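#struct-pred
JK: can someone run the complex with adenosine-5'-triphosphate? inputs below
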Amino acid sequence: FAPWEDPSAVPFIEFRNVTKRFGDFTAVNNLSLKIFEREFFALLGGSGCGKTTMMRMLAGFETPTQGQVLLAGQDLSGVPPYRRPVNMMFQSYALFPHMSVEANIAFGLKQDKMGKADIEARVAEMLRLTKLEPFAKRKPHQLSGGQRQRVALARSLAKRPKVLLLDEPLGALDRKLREETQFELMDLQEELKMTFLVVTHDQEEAMTMADRIAVMDAGEIVQVATPPEIYEAPNSRFVADFIGDVNMIEAKVIETSEDGTRLQAASADFVIQTTSETTARPGDTVWYAIRPEKVRLVAGDTSPSNINAAAAVVWDIAYLGDVSIFNARINETDVLRSTVTNATRLVERPITWDDRVILSWDQDAGVILTK
Ligand code: ATP
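RT: done, structure tokens with the ligand placed:
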């Protein structure tokens, strides 16, 4: 299932040249985006980039200054929030403190004047889906943070919206619970066959849960792609930096040929031979972005070649359990980072501070970036 690869596929949610201004401040700038039915889609970006504003325009809490928001092909302008088949999950502190879990979940259904038996059935279904059955009679203050979050989720799903909007849904949870809840949300989305749109500044959260991610910066979308594409083939320095850890090597293009492109590093004496495609021409300054786990590290003074290999001195090491991070200096000021798995070795390492090492990588390990 990859409708975004099919040019004739009809989007479920569409932002068409949407601009949102607050006074003379432009929060969203002429942005277009297509999201497909049953997608788990993430809007990812730093504080103030406009992601919440996007979500609020879809929910109907904000009106675009220009452009249209469409759902199932229908222009939503003029449709009030309560008439949109979209629901927003609010943080758990928006629960009614004096009501039990089941009453919290039933609240919106009662307001909609649903029949008693139907409400009971729906609440039971929601309790089951969110694994809250044992806590149905409790009040929010008698629950853990994670359980409260699930009540908020159950409440927002109770009316069976077609689209669920999640704004930083897991922000209040600790790391372990956040990871667990991420998987639960994915299972739930799968089971309910709904479209989920999550807004987050947490790249791990977006990478874990989303089918596709839109990376936003200053009211614009920089890149839309699947998590592996965004990680392996970022289209800009901004995206490469935002997602995960990266070595950004400034370099000059020496030549391009059918075999790939050859770059001279700007600050040290090594050459990068890469199969990464680029429009850059000989003489251009570019950046070579390579993830630390793609940089190998072995003890040694001199490398047999300076192509895709650099001599360095270990500057610091961080032991993280699953991996160790080595920062190795290639000159007075520049550091290349190599992340080495600890899967096969334990704390005792043959390479330590001040050791001379050779860093090396494969031709297809990184990407050339021109912006
Ligand atoms: P965060 O993660 O910090 O919530 P965000 O990407 O969700 O950031 P938005 O809430 O969409 O950001 O806000 C985008 C920009 O628009 C911010 O600079 C914000 O100050 C501004 N903004 C949002 N709502 C209003 C408003 N009602 N009036 C004026 N400016 C606003």
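RT: quick notes.
Residues 22, 25, 27, 45, 47-53, 201 surround adenosine-5'-triphosphate (CB under 6 Å).
Residues 175-192 form the longest helix (18 residues).
JK: thanks, will look after standup
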